[in-house]
């Protein structure tokens, strides 16, 4: 899952327009953060952007594929989809795809911070 430094720098330049982009080494590749939110993975010189139920169809229509890794002999798909080839050309072409990834990351963060209601649980009076 290694990625060449030149490609990582290129991705950071593409993402600099929508916000502050940084890459951190992880699992032999890189995690990409935009304004502190985890929005992408770089693996084997491929950029995979965060997607969710609301945005996955856009990636599918663009001909993208999900990031898949093998764990204990089984293929596991993650909620990251390969960036369309043309989006890798300029920051302007990357911007709408980065926005989709950022929106998915924001929704995921909101879902994690929202307490889940349990059936039959009633709040105690203060």
How is the main sheet built? 6 strands, antiparallel
Would you tell me the structural class of the helices and strands? Answer: alpha+beta
Looking across the biggest beta sheet, what order are the strands in?
Answer: 1-2-3-4-6-5
Report the radius of gyration as a whole number of Å: 17 Å
Tally the helices: what do you get? 3
Beta-strand share of residues: 25-35%
Provide the succession of SSEs: HEEEEHEEH
Give average pLDDT, whole number: 87
Give the N-terminus to C-terminus distance in angstroms. Answer: 52 Å
Can you describe what's shown?
The structure is a single chain. 28% of the residues are buried. A 6-stranded antiparallel beta sheet has the order 1-2-3-4-6-5. The chain has a single domain, classed as YgaC/TfoX-N like chaperone (Yope Regulator, Chain: A). Strand 5 and strand 6 form a beta hairpin. It is globular, with a radius of gyration of 17 Å. The termini are far apart. The chain has 126 residues and is an alpha+beta fold.
